[in-house]
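Late entry, evening session. Most of the bench is empty. Finally got around to the prediction I had been postponing all week. Sequence below, unchanged from the version circulated by S.P.
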Amino acid sequence: MVEKALNLQVDQVFLDLEDAVAPEAKNEARELIQKTFDWLAVEKKRFTAGAVSIRVNGSETSWLGDDLDLLSGGVGKCIDSIILPKVGTIEEIKWFSNELSKVESDCGINEGSISIDVQIETAKGLVNVESIAHGPRVSSIAFGPVDFMADLGMPLSDESSQAASSETSDMFNYPLMKILVAARAAGVKAIDGPILDVHDIEKFRISAIRAQSMGFDGKWVLHPSQIATCNEIFTPTQDAFEFACMLIQAYEFYTGTSGGAKGAVIYEGVMIDEASCKLAKGVQARGFSGGLLPRKVLNG
């Protein structure tokens, strides 16, 4: 599975030490991660993904100490971030950031090299998400739907963070929006949680479309079969990308002196102003991130 993950077309890949690993297999998983990075160094290979991460065990578990020892042993210099699950308070982030400073010192890398990707999976975490999002090293906030359901005592009727059925389609609107607003206020990424039914691509598609429509930056995938759909939904179409680029050009022209220094104009039948330009820049940035290039230039 690790070898297959080397060339997956994803923005981030993580090696798991938490929920995907049985308690009695934690040591074996750490050994596998160590061997993986040793092998990559010898073979001079690397993951295609833009970021490589490890999900450690939660701060309230007895396993985190051994996870930190793994990082301090050299693995810390091979990764970009740590995914920290079940975060409940800003104090956890501050403590863990200090622990990562020790890891960076042991590995001989600059302090602050390793960022923290937070998972909000409990009621306590959701209540405190605004302060958590502003914590040191935090680069993203992700929703963990299944643990959140368990913490709230919800029946396991649909494990999706964006349920496809009409009966449960609104059950996570509140936590998702709260996470999104907290992330935006702190200037970090907001990531929707996974769909556990990896063979139901239509359920994944519905979930991803809703998350993208809300404004989330991305979504967890658990299986390679979900990647193409996720990339398709979170990358604007060429037409949408082109329109955004042209709108930005039009706004910059008409608000400049050569265009009459107007505050708002009509472009392609749509009124554009500073707010719509900001929206267009978001589409443009996602397009560039997805490898799109503009093919048209606005004629004065």
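Two things to note before I forget:
The domain at 2-234 is CATH 3.20.20.60 (TIM Barrel).
Residues 121 and 147 are 5 Å apart (CA to CA).
Will write this up properly tomorrow.
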